[in-house]
From TrEMBL:
CDD domains: YlqF. NCBIfam families: GTPase_YlqF. Gene3D superfamilies: 1.10.1580.10, P-loop containing nucleotide triphosphate hydrolases. It comes from the Eukaryota. GO terms for biological process: mitochondrial translation. Residues 211-265 form the G domain. Keywords: GTP-binding, Nucleotide-binding. One of its GO terms (molecular function) is GTP binding. This is G domain-containing protein.
Length: 363
């Protein structure tokens, strides 16, 4: 099976010669002018930022050109994040219960017939533990992309195709409403069907299939179990760190599930991934500065084609285009206003900007 772990952090610029941010901005500006027949743009933090009113005026161009621009927006976004995160305090969170859980979980995984790894569908790569492949070895695995209701159908299809090419069993789910939970139960039992075939061949009685549910904090592991069981057996809340110990629960007569606390690396080396965890509330709030994270999210959304500056203007009556620099995506005073007056991060987490993924599959 191909590795499911997130790839190592991309270098600031992975296409062509290594260029300074200003050169990359110039390249993107030139590309935009060539495709749209002349386009005013604001270059911020090594990328192209087109204001919403400019987009409105320059909205007529063919679909192939639009796809080209969108692909390059996603290509450049990680490069922008690299520069935006460099001056910030590193996002790190490793409370004591995670260290204890990791040790216990590695022992329990030896007993598993199937492992169900849950990730946040908005950031499937950022919520992949770098040591998961080593822990699981050749053990059968199902990948669940939870919160599928918070991304677009195009994003869902792109990720499903990406993991299918890796021969990975993937299920898109909504742990809050239960979508995908019954399919998960059936797939888990079918993957482990040979367990009892082998037991019978040795003259042993059948036993329930054992499945462990693992993943980062607050990706919806306990909610998924509760939906499978159709009753609240595991504590669940929309914040990291609620589940603090391993717990076995029985699903019918033929399936046992192990709920586990969220696990994180002791040190997160990829800070672009760490910022995405903070944005999506998949890491403890004490680990990051809310103003910094809100500032970065503002600029991310202005660059993501499905949102853009206009959505921010319509909701908050502010135009963030042109506010920023090489190392800071947003000035401090504006970021503070967004955080305190508008509850910006909370709005994003509640889906106020529609179905928005913060990652696309690598090409």
């Amino acid at each position: 099976m191909a590795s499911l772990a997130a790839p190592p952090p991309k270098p600031p610029f992975s296409r062509g010669p290594h260029l300074p941010p200003s050169s990359t901005a110039a390249w993107k500006l030139t590309a935009g002018r060539n495709l749209r027949g002349g386009l005013a743009a604001n270059a911020v933090a090594g990328g192209l930022s087109v204001s919403w009113n400019q987009r409105e005026k320059n909205s007529v161009f063919n679909g192939a050109d639009e796809d080209f621009l969108e692909e390059n927006v996603w290509d450049e976004l990680d490069s922008d994040l690299y520069y935006w995160t460099k001056p910030l305090r590193p996002v790190q969170w490793y409370p004591g219960h995670i260290a204890k859980t990791e040790k216990e979980l590695k022992e329990q995984l030896k007993l598993m017939d199937v492992v169900i790894e849950v990730r946040d569908a908005r950031i499937p790569l950022a919520t992949s533990h770098p040591q998961m492949d080593a822990w699981l070895g050749n053990r059968k695995r199902i990948l669940v992309l939870n919160r599928e209701d918070m991304i677009s159908s195009a994003d869902r299809n792109a990720w499903a195709e990406f993991f299918s090419r890796q021969n990975t069993k993937v299920i898109l789910s909504n742990g809050q409403l239960g979508m995908g939970s019954m399919k998960l139960g059936r797939l888990t039992k079918s993957l482990a069907a040979d367990v009892n075939v082998k037991r019978r061949a040795r003259g042993l009685l059948p036993r329930p299939v054992r499945a462990g549910i693992v993943g980062y904090p607050n990706v919806g592991k306990s909610s998924l179990i509760n939906r499978l069981l159709k009753r609240r057996m595991c504590p669940a809340a929309p914040r990291p760190g609620v589940t603090r110990e391993l717990k076995w629960v029985r699903f019918g007569k033929d399936l046992e599930l192990l709920d586990s606390p969220g696990i994180l690396p002791m040190r997160i080396s990829d800070q672009t991934a760490a910022i995405k965890l903070a944005i999506c509330d998949d890491i403890g709030e004490r680990s990051y500065d809310v103003t910094d994270v809100a500032a970065i999210l503002v600029q991310m959304l202005t660059k993501i084609p499905s949102v853009g500056s206009r959505a921010l203007y319509n909701r908050y009556k502010i135009d963030p285009d042109g506010i920023g620099g090489k190392t800071s995506p947003f000035n401090d005073s504006m970021a503070t206003i967004v955080k305190q007056r508008f509850g910006f991060l909370s709005d994003f987490r509640k889906g106020k900007f529609g179905w928005v993924a913060l990652e696309r599959p690598p090409r």
